[in-house]
Amino acid sequence: MDEGDKAGAKRLNWPPVANTNGMSETRKLHIKSFGCQMNVYDSYRMADTLAPAGYAETAEAADADLIILNTCHIREKAAEKVYSEIGRLRALKQEAAAHGRRITIAVAGCVAQAEGTEIVRRAGSVDLVVGSQNYHRLPDLVARAEAGERVVDTEFPLDDKFDALAAPAHAAIAKRGVSTFVTVQEGCDKFCTFCVVPYTRGAEVSRPLEKIVAEVEHLATGGVREVTLIGQNVNAYHGPDAGGRPAGLAQLLRRLAEVPGILRLRYTTSHPCDMDDALIAAHGDLPALTPYVHLPVQSGSDRILAAMNRRHRRSDYLDVIARLRASRADLAFTSDFIVGFPGEREADFRATLSLVEEVGFATAFTFAYSPRPGTPAVELDDQIPREVQAERLQRLQAVIGRQWRAFNARFAGKTLEVLLEKPGRHPGQLVGRTPYLQTVQVIAPRRLIGSALPVTITEVGSNSLFGTLAGQPSTPDFAAAGA
Ligand code: SF4
Question: Which residues touch 426 (CB under 8 Å, ≥6 apart)?
Answer without folding.
Answer: 476, 478
